[in-house]
Design goal:
417 residues, alpha/beta, TIM Barrel, two-stranded parallel ribbon, 40% helix, binds beta-D-glucopyranose
Length: 417
């Protein structure tokens, strides 16, 4: 392990655990994904249901973050709770999130707030979701309200989480590439029938890999950022990107270069002028000359999804982000899906080493935030993948911290000057 006894990590470095509303709160019934999870033909392994009941247990969960010795909790506020009907803002939901953020402060934890983490209000989906040209202004209005109501309680804000994910999924052969494709996908057809709209306009955030999807997200980020800044200029604003280490197998160089541009670089270029960019890396993807994804080599350790465990990927993505975006970097997500926590401990140690090397090389990295606090709802995969620092028994909602949680706190103590 790198010798960090001289503490190369900058003062104020954020060490944290990340989470996202829909994946942990439970009962997010006014959201678009609630419909998609429950509709006939759903591609979700199971619905989110009551998740980890974090909506009611947040104080205990935040206390856990503090007990590990971390100083940051990245969390998200749910648009569909705050604005359950277009233009109607819900006082109770806003008060709830105020209490969440105040609880962080009571425990000496700095909250980092994501305004949009994949889920949107159902009414937004019915109106064309993330391909509707009106969505950027609707998002900006919501961002302004959130900042006016809660912005005194945090200093770092993420507008959109992983706007580039659909393009990465597209390269892996998942997701609809044109609006018309949705007319042939039962989940979209059935959701559209419930909403009384054409399936072609069902454009949820995670599944829209079209040009319109790109344009709308970019505009939403910019208008959202300006809205946040117009209320409280001192909040540092950026977006967080799904940046895989995209590599070429022999013959795949041209294809990998194109993908790297479409998935990573054009989003990083769009981050220029922001206060930071959030890097979220889970490994590498290597493509061969036919554009096919290379499978993990026989015998190498793999995560629960069958992908190679590759902490070194974070080195390339941090450096790529700093080089292309030219702004400070926070690692806003990095983690491992495994039922073997010893693997996670090793992964975290290796990843922190990677961050230390980047900092020693002069890269401006300001935080390392692990995905994720709790074993939670892993989107289409349901509850099977275990990314958490804390195990959750969903029958009793009991929490059991894993050794990796304490190891992360120890690393924070060891490596902070
Ligand atoms: C997302 C998280 C997700 C994690 C692990 C990221 O794509 O931001 O919501 O759970 O990766 O797959």
């Amino acid at each position: 392990m790198t010798d960090l006894s001289t503490g190369p990590f900058p003062k104020g470095f954020l060490w944290g655990a990340a989470s996202a509303g829909h994946q942990v709160e439970g009962g997010n019934t006014d959201s678009d994904l609630w419909l998609l999870e429950n509709v006939a033909g759903s591609i979700f392994a199971e619905p989110s249901g009551d998740a980890c009941d974090h909506y009611h247990r947040y104080a205990d969960d935040i206390a856990l973050v503090a007990s590990f010795g971390l100083n940051t909790f990245r969390t998200s506020v749910e648009w569909s709770r705050i604005e359950p009907a277009e233009g109607r803002f819900d006082r109770e939901a806003i008060a709830h999130y105020r209490d969440v953020l105040e609880t962080c402060h009571r425990y000496g934890i700095a909250p980092m707030v994501t305004y949009h983490h994949f889920t949107s209000p159902l009414w937004l989906l019915a109106g064309g979701g993330w391909e509707n040209p009106r969505t950027p202004e609707l998002f900006a209005r919501y961002a302004e309200v959130v900042t006016a109501e809660l912005g005194d309680l945090f200093d770092v804000a993420c507008t959109l989480n992983e706007p580039n994910l659909p393009f990465l999924l597209g390269a892996l052969g998942l997701g609809a590439k044109t609006p018309g494709d949705r007319r042939h996908i039962p989940m979209f057809v059935n959701a559209a029938a419930e909403l009384g709209v054409d399936p072609a306009i069902i454009a949820p955030f995670q599944f829209s890999a079209t040009q319109a999807g790109y344009d709308v997200k970019l505009a939403a980020h910019r208008l959202g950022r300006d809205a946040i800044k117009s209320v409280r200029h001192e909040i540092a604003v950026g977006w967080t990107l799904a940046n895989s280490d995209i590599q070429a197998a022999p013959g795949g160089e041209q294809y990998a270069t194109t993908l790297r541009h479409d998935i990573n670089e054009r989003f990083l270029e769009a981050s220029r002028g922001d206060d930071f960019v959030g890097v979220q890396t889970y490994g590498r993807h290597a493509f061969d000359e036919d554009g096919a994804l290379m499978k993990a080599t026989e015998g190498v350790p793999v995560n629960q999804m069958g992908d190679e465990i590759y902490p070194q990927g974070l080195s390339s993505t941090i450096r790529e982000a700093a080089r292309v975006a030219g702004v400070p970097v926070y690692v806003t997500e990095n983690g491992l899906a495994t039922t073997d926590d010893a693997q996670r401990v090793q992964f975290l140690e290796d990843s922190v080493d990677v961050v230390a090397d980047c900092i020693a090389d002069g890269v401006d990295v300001r935080g390392y935030i692990v995905w994720t606090l709790l074993d939670n709802f892993e989107w289409i995969f349901g509850y099977e993948p275990k990314f958490g620092l804390v195990a959750v028994d969903r029958a009793t909602q009991g929490r059991t911290p894993k050794p990796s949680a304490y190891r992360l706190g120890e690393l924070a103590r060891l490596y902070t000057s």
